[in-house]
Amino acid sequence: MSQNLPAQNIDPQIYALYDEYCHGAMDRREFLAKASALLVGGMAMAQALFPRYAEAQTISFTDARMKANYVKYASPGGSSGEMRGYLAQPVSATQTKFPAVLVIHENRGLNPYIEDVARRLATAGFLALAPDGLYPVGGYPGNDDDGKKLQDGLNPAKLQTDMLNSAMFVKNHALSSGKLGLTGFCWGGGITNELAAELGDAVQAGAPYYGLATAPDKVSKIKAELVLHFAETDPRINATWPAYETALKAQGVKLQGHFYAGTQHGFHNNSTPRFNQAAADLSWSRTLELFNRTLKS
User: Fold this and answer.
1) How far is it, in rounded angstroms, from Cα 6 to Cα 45?
2) In this predicted model, what pLDDT tens digit does every residue of 163-190 receive, in sequence order?
3) pTM over 0.85
4) How many domains does the chain fold into?
5) Are residues 149 and 28 in the same domain?
């Protein structure tokens, strides 16, 4: 039952518990115990929310439109001084350089869903790098629970520096046209906002998914055009948006903020029942429109 439970059959209370679990308020065992105690069938609902990455692949590793491999590069000031990322590049008979996009993972390292997002971007004509923030501590461990624990143990400032260095690595890559876009999910959505501020006019576009706003005193540094995606039910993240929107508009930042009806935090991630096909497709089309318009011209 837990593997095939439709999203509409999962109680909102279980979604709320899962959100707490995802953001570190409890471990897997506590999440399952609380879900089981909350209501009849809660255990099955909770188990249904865990990711199933084998079902989530949309672009094959062998897709002829792109090629991908793991690369290492220097990361001064980061967790260890070196980083590793998944680099997906378009295959073209006519182009030798492509606009670059950094793909920033959630709070559990470089899992297969994020690698698939990088491949999606490569098939759309972008040089996409998905860094693994967990590389300095052994890399994504193959499951999200251990990945979350590893990421929680890292120094946040050094981890952000690793993402910043990753952005500059792909921007300056031999295959890059020099234009840079950012996208990220959950924790990575917040880092997309942070890096847009840190990098200023080195970034042309940002598309954060359900990410925390950056601090008000940093907003004046943002020069990129932003298209921001939010779930309808995501109170922790959504509470940060009104003040952020006001500050961005005061600085003259070009932006669109989109809320997707009937969605939960994580709606773009097609490995769990939180996935919402219509919202994922629409948000992704808006992200690609932004990147095509700002990075390919």
Assistant:
1) 9
2) 999 999 999 999 999 999 999 999 999 9
3) yes
4) 2
5) no
